[in-house]
Amino acid sequence: MSTPTPPPPCSTKPATPPTPARHEARELLSDAQFNEVLLTVLDNNPGMEPDTGVRILIEALKFVAAAAQFPSVRIAPTREVDEGWHALILHTHLYASLTTRLGRMVHHFPERPDPSRHDPDVLTRTVALIEQAGYTPDRELWMGPGKPLATVAATCSHTPVPGGCGPINPGNCATHGGGGDGE
After folding, report:
1. Are 175 and 117 in contact (CB under 8 A)?
2. pLDDT of 156-176, one tens digit each?
3. I want to staple 85 with a disulfide (CB 3.0 to 4.6 A). Which of 48, 60, 96, 157 is the partner?
4. What is the pTM (predicted TM-score) of this model?
5. Residue 111, SS3?
6. Is 21 exposed, middle or buried (0-12, 13-18, 19+ CB in 10 A)?
7. How much is the pLDDT for 11?
8. Integer Cα distance of 60 and 16 in angstroms
9. Can you say whether the dihedral through the CA atoms of 170, 175, 179, 183 is positive or negative?
């Protein structure tokens, strides 16, 4: 008669939730494409350290990827990240190809800066969606208007609040001829 094998001991460690897959936003562009857009950032911001330009462009790629993945959520870039987004957009063929690969065009609707429209929660929401999209945000570039990492040429802001459409929900807001609900 054989002796039954005892069951394995129970683990007292809590189960670890799965970690979302992490991506490298830098890989969204070839080296040549990345360097061309980086030169645009640096040309538009004389005196900017190249490492700062690299960080700004990488965050802009993360922002565009998150905006494409979550088109119904109102998010907005900081002015620093917006500078990288502007540089991407100036390379129209590259930008169209990038957004096609990401699943949808992410339009840019600039507005003049107006501190009265600043939504402090928008950056928290934006960073959370960048993380949900599988990227690790460079938090120093998401501090908002009170704590900029670098001075940049970008002078527009985005209004992800009713009456404005921000970068994601264009066409049916008060600014662009719609009913003002931003949807």
Report:
1. no
2. 555 444 444 444 444 444 444
3. 60
4. 0.73
5. strand
6. exposed
7. 44
8. 31
9. positive
CA 94 to chain centre: 17
Tokens at residue 60, please? Answer: 């802009």
Residue found by looking up tokens 């929900």 in the block: 169
Q: Is 113 left (phi over 0), alpha (psi -120 to 50) or beta?
A: beta
* pLDDT given for residue 13 in this prediction: 47
**Tokens 């960080």 — which residue?**
55
Cα dist from 72 to 66, 155, 160, whole Å: 11, 25, 11
Residue 113 near residue 156, CB atoms below 8 Å = yes
Q: Distance between CA atoms of 42 and 15, rounded to whole angstroms?
A: 46
Round to whole Å and give the CA distance between 44 and 93.
20
